[in-house]
Task: structure prediction
Amino acid sequence: MTEVLSRRQYRAELAMIEHGKRRAKKGNKFGARRTVVDGITFDSKRESEVYSDLKNLERAGRISGLVLQRKFELIVNGQIIGTYRADFCFIDHDRDGRFRTIDVKGVVTKDFKRVQKLIKAAYNIDVEVWK
Result:
């Protein structure tokens, strides 16, 4: 059976959706909000703050080669089983030119811990978590 709404009922439904009484669109399950800095969209405000801090360190010459969203292929027995994108990778001159891989997380999940182990096994890279 089809429900018929009067004009007034329809507008009342729209008002409820607009005022958040009904969820029209589901947000991030961890409460992160997308943020734009330098024309780049980040998944969270914290990630954009880390980007700004790293850009300042790069300008100061303390790090170099800053790369956003670097892709790592997860390979097992010669087969690509998936990919992982690190939030930030760079060379840290304060730590003897060490290559660092950073992921900004509010919540570290079991799946992410598994990916950390895979990256360590495949590339011998420790993925650091910054909160």
In short: DSSP finds three helices and six strands in the chain.
